[in-house]
Amino acid sequence: MIELKNISKSYGAVHAVRKVDLSVPPGSIYGIIGKSGAGKSTLLRVMSLLEAPDGGEVYYRQERVDILTGKALLERRRKMGMIFQNFNLLSSRDAAGNIAYPLEIGGLHKKQIEKRVDELLEMVNITDKRHARLRELSGGQKQRVAIARALAVNPEVLFCDEATSALDPQTTRSILTLIRELHDSLKITVVLITHQMSVIQSVCSEVAVLDEGIIAEEGVVDAVFKAP
Ligand code: ADP
Ligand code: ADP
Question: Where is the ABC transporter domain (predicted)?
Answer without folding.
Answer: 2-228
